[in-house]
Predict the 3D structure of the following.
Amino acid sequence: MLSAPNPQPHAPLLTETASPPAQPLGTKAPQGSQQSLNQALIDTTSRIMGAMYVYLALWLVITLVAGLQKTHPQLVWGTTIWLAAIAATRALVAHQLHRLLDHSPALAHRLTVGLVLVNGLTWGLLTAASVQIPSLEPIRTSMLLVSVGLSSGGTVAMAINPTLKVWFPVSVIAPVAIATATHASDSNFMLASLMVVYTVYVMHSARTVSQDYWRAQEAFRALEHASLTDPLTQVPNRLHFERQYQIEWRRACRLNTRIAVMIVDLDHFKRVNDEHGHPAGDIVLQEAAKAMSAAIMRPCDVLARYGGEEFIVLLPEITEEGAQVVAERLRSQVEKLTIALPSSAIRITCSVGYACLVPGHELDADDMIRQADEALYQAKTSGRNRWHGWVPPTVQDAMRDAAVQPTAETDSALM
């Protein structure tokens, strides 16, 4: 059983030691600006899944009904192939979106937004061509009506995306407005002006939809933050730990890396409540949480309140030596605390038990927590204010065999 050396006794009581503020949950929990943008991209993609093939279908209906395949076969079939290629690429990106967001969020955003804008710009240019080229007059009215419909419907559907809510209507309407304005006639100029006014109106409507979405997202994040935060200590609670633990356990299984779990218990905490009252006990818990938060260095590590005076720590991708360093740092940070009360000052210590291993078939996630709890029990029974690490049975057997195995010199001495 790995354990810490006996710590030195407490020094005389001093004034309250300054502690850094507790780490806010936002740095630990799975919600942040990047996650919000990723979720918005996922929501945007789900809203426009059906529109991926709409451009192709509308183009074929309009041109084939108008008989354009006879007079402009290259334009009709070339554009059909182009729109089909865009649709297929968009479908592929949508299918792989979650994987892309895991590996390269920036690439996922660029691909999704870029393909939508290419689709919109293609339709805008085709509509502009129907205005400029006399031989395309049979499809002009249909193209203009569809452009207006695509611009309004698409902009509102994609309003939650900061880029698309501005540039999608521009990509569809701007080429048409320029074409109608340059193709000099009073009716065309009026049409171009109406399109500009309509685009501004659509963008204003999209702004309202966007504000409603992001207000709802902000309220959801606030609610989730509250549900994942311990209200007294303001560190993550047990629910948040269990979520992260399952994620990190599966990752460690997949990558064959070590993971550590530590259970920290404040020594003689019941005595604090009995002698100083529960309000003082609450202050002790808050200050201990701040001290332990300062001992957790990496953003991927999680300190959570496990229940009562117990805290639990999750350390993914860490070595046995690294776990020992963190365990000692947790112990020493709490030991340094002097908590000043109106009538007295309180000194506290903690005991730490941990398990650190590469997940295997012989041990599941619940077993690891039980072993960390067993190590905590050993730290408590060994005198408190120390840490113990759980050693797998195979390692224990090897250590025991090495300890009792007689050497050659011993054998000869006994003969």
In short: Strands lie at 2-3, 259-266, 302-307, 310-316, 338-340, 345-347, 350-357, 387-390. The CA atoms of residues 245 and 314 lie 7 Å apart. Residues 186-227 form the longest helix (42 residues).
